[in-house]
Design a protein that fits this description.
One of its GO terms (molecular function) is DNA-binding transcription factor activity. The chain has three domains: 70 residues, Orthogonal Bundle (Arc Repressor Mutant, subunit A), CATH 1.10.10.10; 128 residues, ATPase, nucleotide binding domain (Nucleotidyltransferase, domain 5), CATH 3.30.420; 160 residues, 2-Layer Sandwich (Nucleotidyltransferase, domain 5), CATH 3.30.420. It contains 13 helices and 14 strands. The two termini are 29 Å apart.
């Protein structure tokens, strides 16, 4: 505390810090609105042309930006436009799941390339790292392109302070391990780690329907049920990164299924895509996965009406819980349930309206998500790379 009668001092901001902040602002504008000419960037940022030119030169030097020729017009060839590097640089996105893992490449603009390496999820953590390293090196070998980093999307609880998985009911081989740090050691590139629902939330904001929105929630329904919340433009991660595990709220008080977390009756045991596949397996008398369930529903060869009603009922319970707890302006729902019948989405919304507090429901727009977990892994590493620009040397 400052002595009585004196004013607290203000920390001096060094010129290098100002320069880094200008670079970060240029990157953000090009992320949201690029490609743009230097003059357009200056107008959007509210910075002087010389300031923008200095920031752009630095970003071109480190490979985060590149120049692209603008289409020629009747007035001749216009000034080249700036964009996030996509032809000269790439990032990799890794999604890890209980059944299989995917490694994809993308430009810094988030546009996914056609290259995709899929591997079955191994039974040990060491073998998992071996498989992911081999898949990543296959994409890193792309000629003429520099790989700037790799993002990992991981299911379960993730401790961001330690950068490791804490508890993954559906992928226990990752418990206590730090896949991003371990892959960084093996590959020699920058790597980032995001919990998969948080990654999906970030993907929607950067590349999906939430672009330009700072307050929304993402209900991620797949093997489990997770939640990502964006508030004030920042992910709500909790004290250590464990926020968002709505799938482990108790939905069936007595006699529910055993969940991978060890409890009974968790929401994800009745509302997840995997739960639908388990109910379908019981009805058919054989094991089916989510892909086969979707195929059966499209073909209309089996009657799964009761199973779908149960999935809709409990998904609506989850939606209502999110609305009541977080009061989001928009709630995105990511699930395969709506693939075969869009009317199921309307039924989820109708039932959620009956369960949620009326003001919370009335104040929220509910829509199917557009972003993917692949994009989420990419968004995580792009954010890491661009945020690093704002940090002082």
């Amino acid at each position: 505390m400052a002595p009585s009668g004196t004013l607290p001092t203000i920390t001096t901001i060094r010129p290098s810090q100002v320069g880094r902040l200008n670079e970060r602002q240029v990157l953000r504008v090009l992320q949201d609105r690029g490609p743009l000419s230097r003059a357009d960037v200056a107008r959007e940022c509210g910075l002087s042309p010389p300031t923008v030119s200095k920031a752009v030169a630095s970003l071109l030097k480190v490979g985060l930006l590149e120049e692209a020729d603008a289409p020629e017009t009747a007035r001749g060839r216009p000034a080249p436009r700036l964009r996030l590097a996509s032809a000269t640089a790439q990032v990799l996105g890794v999604t890890i799941d209980g059944g299989h893992c995917e490694v994809v490449s993308a430009g810094l603009d988030g546009e996914l390339h056609a290259d995709l390496v899929t591997v079955p999820t191994p039974t040990s953590y060491t073998k998992l790292l071996d498989a992911l390293e081999a898949a990543a090196r296959e994409l890193i070998a792309r000629p003429g392109v520099r790989t700037l980093g790799l993002g990992v999307s991981l299911p379960g609880l993730v401790d961001y302070r330690k950068g490791c998985g804490v508890l993954s009911p559906n992928l226990p081989i990752t418990n206590g391990h730090a896949p991003a740090a371990d892959l960084a050691d093996r590959l020699g590139i920058e790597c980032s780690l995001l919990q998969e629902s948080h990654a999906l939330c970030l993907a929607e904001r950067e590349y999906g329907l939430a672009r330009g929105h700072d307050d929304f929630a993402m209900l991620d329904v797949g093997t489990g049920v997770g939640l990502g919340v964006m508030s004030g433009g920042r992910l709500v991660t909790g004290h250590s990164g464990l926020a968002g595990e709505v799938g482990h709220l108790t939905a069936v008080a007595d006699g529910g299924r055993v969940c991978g977390c060890g409890n009974r009756g968790c929401l994800e045991t009745v509302a997840s895509d995997r739960a639908l596949a388990l109910r379908a397996s019981e009805k058919l008398g054989r094991d089916v996965d989510v892909d086969e369930v979707m195929d059966l529903l499209r073909a209309g060869t089996v009657d799964l009406a009761d199973e779908l009603r149960a999935a809709v009922k409990y998904l609506a319970v989850g939606v209502a819980a999110v609305l009541n707890l977080f009061n989001p302006a928009t709630l995105f729902i990511h699930t395969r349930l709506f693939e075969t019948d869009p009317d199921l989405f309307d039924e989820v919304v109708r039932q959620a309206a009956a369960r949620a507090l009326p003001p919370a429901f009335a104040d929220c727009r509910i829509v199917p998500a557009k972003g993917s977990k692949r994009q989420g892994a990419v968004a995580g590493i792009v954010r890491r790379l661009t945020d690093a620009v704002a940090q002082d040397n």
